Amino acid sequence: MTGIKICGIKYDEDIGIINELKPDYAGMVLFFEKSKRNIAIDRAAEMIKKLDKNIQKTAVVVSPDINQIKAITDVGFDYIQIHKDMPDDILEKITIPVIRAVNMPDEINGAETESNFNDEIEKLIKNDKIYGILFDAGVPGSGKTFRWHRINGIKEKIKYSGKKFFLAGGLNPDNVKEAVLQVNPDVVDVSSGVEKDTGAGKDREKTEKFIKNIRKEQEKNYG
Ligand SMILES: O=C(O)c1ccccc1N[C@@H]1O[C@H](COP(=O)(O)O)[C@@H](O)[C@H]1O
């Protein structure tokens, strides 16, 4: 069964949608003022209390410092999703499971620009603090996809390691079925693709369609 993560929740209406549709994970963006989905830590604490206890709460951050990590742990998040910098000394101090986000570097004329990509994944696979590895497009939360075949070589390695393999980046109700068929991730992750057209908060119909399109496919395959 493919897990589902709905990211960037911010409003009370979003909580209602999440509690009703019950994805496996819900994500909140913190300490990143540049994002329209950014919320304050106190607001996150309030939202955690209102969310269904069976939904795993994930703090989504960019290059966090140790004080931010402490605040995230104190309010009761289940996971921390880290984009960009994650130095070893910071990782050592984290006490909740980490979802390491890999923002795929731009390709130049269809070719990879980073040769050490595989080395980084190998290192993550061996680290007990890492719960999962999440592949996203170059700019987090941009609603853009990347060419999925770029991770063909490493996805099985992640799966066999026992870490969760998350696919993110520009997923939406219309492409998620194809993403599951082509990539077969453990978890699909969406933010922009299930937002209202105004961009302010989650759209109930889009979120429901996203979830139904995955579950419908699974019912066909597993009954
Ligand atoms: O959503 C953001 O603004 C954001 C900010 C900082 C780090 C991550 C962010 N979003 C994450 O990006 C992926 C993919 O999002 P999308 O579906 O392409 O919009 C997802 O994990 C978001 O939580």
Give the biggest sheet. 8 strands, parallel, barrel
**Cα Rg:** 17 Å
Instruction: Compute the average pLDDT.
Output: 91
| SS-derived structural category | alpha/beta
Overall body shape: globular
Could you explain how this protein is built, in words?
With 223 residues, this protein is an alpha/beta fold. Helix content is 36%, strand content 20%. It has 8 helices and 9 strands. An 8-stranded parallel beta barrel has the order 1-2-4-5-6-7-8-9, surrounded by 4 helices. Strand 6 (98-103), helix 5 (117-125) and strand 7 form a beta-alpha-beta unit. The model has no long low-confidence stretch (mean pLDDT 91). The structure holds the ligand O=C(O)c1ccccc1N[C@@H]1O[C@H](COP(=O)(O)O)[C@@H](O)[C@H]1O. The ligand O=C(O)c1ccccc1N[C@@H]1O[C@H](COP(=O)(O)O)[C@@H](O)[C@H]1O binds at residues 7-8, 27, 29, 32, 35, 37, 60, 62, 83, 136, 140-143, 168-171, 189-193. It holds the Pfam family PRAI. Residues 5-213 form the N-(5'phosphoribosyl) anthranilate isomerase (PRAI) domain. Its EC number is 5.3.1.24. Belongs to the TrpF family. InterPro entries: Aldolase_TIM, PRAI_dom, RibuloseP-bd_barrel, TrpF_fam.
